[in-house]
């Protein structure tokens, strides 16, 4: 850590704190994410180490770059490139986005997910808070705390991770799942960006699960045919029928 100078606090959450920093003897500005070990189980610590190992290997313009990582007796510190904001902040400020902006998000996140899935990695926690904004409006997928590397022997997973609002039906029902859970989550995000609220929303988690599993999507007016077709492909409750690779990348909306 002696290689970095810690600056102002730029973010804080249940995970810990994020500071702006600078690599000493250079002009490189970075984000320093401090995650305390206190209160975390051995499984939590293993998951954190797994996040670090997964992120070390990733190299894609739409995925946040992990520059360095340290572990001390009391905490972890992840050093990443510094983003300029979150997609969630834009959604909070503006309420919704025009379709052309939603399409830009879709194109960039499809590139990020294609890279992950091609490398047999499922993100499992897609949400607006985990999509950061870099220079020149380049979007960066971050937070691989729930990500899971898949081997040939484990192409279907069963452990439940992620944010319920964006979870696929098979996840909330604790059924086996694969990479298409990320594609459902992307569909929810794009719908929310356009409409201003996700397709299924309630503060009651039991009712939310029921909606995700059973209720049809209510399609807002004003969507282009290509956008609606794209979302209809992603927001299919049966994962076997959900739009996926390679047809996904060939869709007219992308």
TrEMBL record:
Assigned GO CC terms: cytoplasm; cytoskeleton
Reactions performed catalytically: L-seryl-[protein] + ATP = O-phospho-L-seryl-[protein] + ADP + H(+); L-threonyl-[protein] + ATP = O-phospho-L-threonyl-[protein] + ADP + H(+)
One Pfam family this sequence matches: Pkinase
Family affiliation: Belongs to the protein kinase superfamily.
Molecular-function GO terms, alphabetical: ATP binding; protein serine/threonine kinase activity
Enzyme class: transferase
EC number: 2.7.11.1
Protein name as catalogued: non-specific serine/threonine protein kinase
Organism: Guillardia theta (strain CCMP2712) (Cryptophyte)
């Amino acid at each position: 850590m002696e290689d970095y100078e810690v600056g102002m606090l730029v973010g804080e959450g249940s995970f810990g704190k994020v500071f702006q920093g600078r690599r000493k003897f250079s002009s490189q500005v970075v984000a320093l994410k401090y995650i305390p070990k206190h209160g975390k189980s051995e499984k939590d610590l293993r998951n954190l180490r797994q996040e670090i190992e997964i992120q070390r290997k990733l190299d894609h313009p739409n995925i946040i770059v992990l520059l360095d990582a340290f572990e001390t007796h009391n905490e972890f510190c992840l050093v990443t490139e510094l983003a300029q904001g979150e997609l969630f902040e834009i959604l909070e400020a503006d309420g919704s986005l025009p379709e052309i902006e939603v399409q830009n998000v879709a194109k960039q996140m499809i590139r990020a997910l294609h890279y992950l899935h091609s490398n047999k990695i499922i993100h499992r926690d897609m949400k607006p808070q985990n999509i950061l904004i870099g220079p020149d409006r380049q979007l960066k997928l971050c937070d691989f705390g729930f990500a899971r590397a898949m081997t040939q022997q484990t192409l279907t997973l069963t452990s439940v991770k992620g944010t319920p609002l964006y979870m696929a039906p098979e996840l909330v029902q604790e059924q086996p799942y694969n990479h298409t859970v990320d594609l459902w989550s992307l569909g929810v995000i794009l719908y929310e960006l356009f409409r201003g609220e996700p397709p299924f929303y309630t503060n009651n988690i039991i009712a939310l699960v029921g909606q995700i599993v059973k209720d049809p999507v209510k399609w807002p007016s004003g969507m282009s045919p290509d956008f609606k077709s794209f979302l209809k492909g992603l927001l299919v409750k049966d994962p076997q029928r959900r739009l996926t690779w390679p047809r996904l990348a060939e869709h007219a909306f992308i």
